[in-house]
Amino acid sequence: QLRRAKLHVEKAIKEKKIFAVQGPYPVIRHLLRARGWVERKLPFNGKQLKQQHGKQKKRQVEKRESGGGEPLHHPQPHSKKNKGEGEDGDKKEDKKQCSEDSDDIHDLMSFLVQDQVPNFLWTIRLNTVDQELLQRIEVVNRYPRLHALCTKEGLCESLQNLSWFDQVDLNTFFPRCYRLGNMEEQEAFIEDFRLTAARSLLKLALEKVEDRPVGTEQPQKSNKVLGARSHVSHPMPSTARPGSPLYPHLVEEALEVCKQHLGVLEHQDIDRETPSPCRTCIAWDRFLQKYYHVAHEGAGLVLSREQRKQCQDLLQRLGEQLPQLGIEGNLNVWILKPSAKSRGRGIVCTTRLEEVLELSRSCTAPSPQVCEWVVQKYVERPLTIFDTKFDIRQWFVVTDWKPLTVWFYRDCYLRFCSQPFSLRHLEPKQFQAYLAGLGRADAWHRVMVPGMKAAILSALRCAQDQVGSRKGSFELFGADFLIGEDCQPWLLEINSCPTMSPSSAVTRRLCANVQRDTLRLVLDRKDDPNCAIGAFELLYKEAAVPTCLHVGLKLMVEGCSLKKP
């Protein structure tokens, strides 16, 4: 067995097939072994991966040959999360999946390559790997410095620069988002909240039955902590309760605010100095308190037929200027997210401005690290399946940042937030059948997939210059999308190192497939550009920019004058 192990190891070293795996990735380990690779196992205690000194190895070999010494460690995968890069792996990974019964031959081969620098590293975290050794590993599955892409605050900030890269409106694929620690953005959020409340009031007013005063009821408390895939209920309007207050002038105030805002959106204020509609018109504290009573406590409204016509006209014209009007709903729900946490930890939904501002007071300390909270508009009008909200996990791989090279995975899965629907996960094929039943058979290929591709590419281009680029590295990402009632996808976040721990038969197969195809993409394609890469397709490859040598170049521009004929 030792002789066989030595022969296998010698061949693997010659062919540069030594790998290391750190984390819960038994599929990667199994696939690489099947390809003839030999694993250099990581220390049991999870300390940094370092080369062991030759003398120490010699003593270990002597002990092993003499039958003494301690048995070889069976390293266990690490499940800690790098909070700074938006990982979404489960805190407690499936132990059954993570543990493998390595036979003696793999243990022996791993022992024999402990002095070798791995040619391939698949790790859940870069900060546990010795940096000097990391520079010598040819292929690594992680990129450093992903804050601008894989944290909520970083993504919010980087996407604000989209206009420098493409003529695409950020508001067509990313719900409005503000960093609470930034005072300018906090002021912009306050203005957005007020304007959204005014539009929401017009929507509530239109839910009247003829000219009778009506209101809405909201059974859910506004400060309830919700998980990442929980959702706010959407109550139907009900007749105002007996004795509930009526606000005859509230609709008129909302109409005036929306008229002024529409004038700004249509650039009617270009030739004159017009203050923001949120700084004039009405007393906002009083307006918001009355709006809360109508939207959440069943207070009534008084609406004339003329006002009804004005509401309809204004909302139609606002819809032409505001891409997110259709997903806003009428309850003005916002979601507060801690920047670097995942799996819905710490997320709070609220409908009241004062609750957000109270939290923001803890986010204005001098240090930029003190607060990383963002507030984002909640999608109140999502597409549901049998009244159950869902999101889509979409994988993609970046194999180079300079030039940017992105591969899109054609298979994805849907995740449901609650119990009413019996399936926890759904494949796109089943989803397309459901859409066909709604008369939207082509929505998946014509609207959703192109929308997801465009959103992913926009996010990558905005973060490109801030990510740590490293030749030979690659990374598998998981983007989360919510779908609006019009089938338009909305980007929620991008996760580095997405979990590969299956929770159903669907995800068990899909997670195994995407890992297999990722290895094909980053290993096989090096030698054969035409090899099979499974469900991956090239989404984007940036044109290479030639490097200019500025030293010694003649930079003078010469020309001749033009004369009239």
UniProtKB/TrEMBL annotation:
<protein>
    <submittedName>
        <fullName>TTLL3 monoglycylase</fullName>
    </submittedName>
</protein>
<keyword id="KW-0436">Ligase</keyword>
<dbReference type="InterPro" id="IPR051437">
    <property type="entry name" value="TTLL_monoglycylase"/>
</dbReference>
<dbReference type="GO" id="GO:0005930">
    <property type="term" value="C:axoneme"/>
</dbReference>
<dbReference type="GO" id="GO:0005524">
    <property type="term" value="F:ATP binding"/>
</dbReference>
<feature type="region of interest" description="Disordered">
    <location>
        <begin position="46"/>
        <end position="99"/>
    </location>
</feature>
<dbReference type="GO" id="GO:0015630">
    <property type="term" value="C:microtubule cytoskeleton"/>
</dbReference>
<dbReference type="InterPro" id="IPR004344">
    <property type="entry name" value="TTL/TTLL_fam"/>
</dbReference>
<dbReference type="GO" id="GO:0003341">
    <property type="term" value="P:cilium movement"/>
</dbReference>
<dbReference type="GO" id="GO:0070736">
    <property type="term" value="F:protein-glycine ligase activity, initiating"/>
</dbReference>
<keyword id="KW-0547">Nucleotide-binding</keyword>
<feature type="compositionally biased region" description="Basic residues">
    <location>
        <begin position="50"/>
        <end position="61"/>
    </location>
</feature>
<feature type="compositionally biased region" description="Basic and acidic residues">
    <location>
        <begin position="62"/>
        <end position="73"/>
    </location>
</feature>
<dbReference type="GO" id="GO:0060271">
    <property type="term" value="P:cilium assembly"/>
</dbReference>
<dbReference type="Pfam" id="PF03133">
    <property type="entry name" value="TTL"/>
</dbReference>
<keyword id="KW-0067">ATP-binding</keyword>
<feature type="compositionally biased region" description="Basic and acidic residues">
    <location>
        <begin position="82"/>
        <end position="99"/>
    </location>
</feature>
<keyword id="KW-0963">Cytoplasm</keyword>
